[in-house]
């Protein structure tokens, strides 16, 4: 199959949100295409995206057997053309000859609509549907007819519920429903056994249905910015889960079963009220990112040193008074964020973090600065703002790779010779 991709410099942000490895989510760079070039390629599939020449599109639209409609802001005629294709079943783009497999309308490219156009529900071979910020208020029960749908992206709408028929879309691999008004998920969500990515960020979910934990293929789950009060112990049934984002909820604890998920690589529980971290976290040996900012955290357990794959650790805006010496075991650590705690010292073992490139100590009271800091030769960014510093030690000049140094809101009267 010959394919033509025409999304010059497109970031394809929706695909990055989903992180779906789907055949039709392809990215590349290409110039504006003329009709002559398109005609000579004789493709079986054309993916219509930004910078596709209008003349080439209009003259060649009736030729390929597969057409993906990815409406963009520019050029304006292409946007209008896509809108017409979405809305009118009798247009050449949606004729019986056409196999439309993908429709994506990002912000401001599709007209506002409170209901899903009936023409879309007739596209039974549709694999991807994205309607972002179009004031969609409801999904009809007929959504269950789109049996081939693999990606569904409806962020930034006004959805308050999902129909039970959502469970009939068993080929779905990714769902994006962030920034809606959902107060609950239907039990039928558990029927989506092929689902890999579920993003329900920024809704009004106070609880999650038990059926959610049946999604054994799920790899990424984002329930941040909701009002969820607890996570079920059954979360351990998500054996394929790699990324879990529960930021900014009403959690007071994390279930012990969470530490039984050895494939978890990213965990962000920031902006909850956890106050403590279980020593069992040491079992998450594949973890590369751990976020625990604004959680009233009082200490880090020594077992934190068992997270030897960790690259980014965020524990700012807590009430930490010390950092365990086991921190020195995190040989892969690149970012250590500790701002606005109650630290007065750093462990000697901090100098063992030879991969560390970014350390944020803003808003602590570590004074004087320990000489171990100057052994972090890979350091590129150092945050020392609002620490009550009056002088800087000469050793600061040893950080030859340092690019950013934050010193605001201190009482410095001079800089070391290396910085003059």
Please give a structural write-up.
- With 420 residues, the protein is mainly beta.
- It folds into 3 domains: 1-111, no CATH class; 127-225, Leucine-rich repeat, LRR (right-handed beta-alpha superhelix); 251-420, Leucine-rich repeat, LRR (right-handed beta-alpha superhelix), CATH 3.80.10.
- The chain contains 5 helices and 17 strands.
- The chain has helices at residues 13-18, 35-41, 54-60, 76-87, 118-121, and strands at 3-5, 45-48, 66-70, 99-105, 128-131, 151-153, 174-176, 197-199, 220-222, 243-245, 266-268, 289-291, 312-314, 335-337, 358-360, 381-383, 404-406.
- The protein has a 17-stranded parallel sheet.
- Helix 2 (35-41) packs across helix 3 (54-60).
- The protein starts with a strand and ends in a 14-residue tail after the last strand.
- The model is unreliable at 1-66, 72-83 and 85-98 (pLDDT under 50).
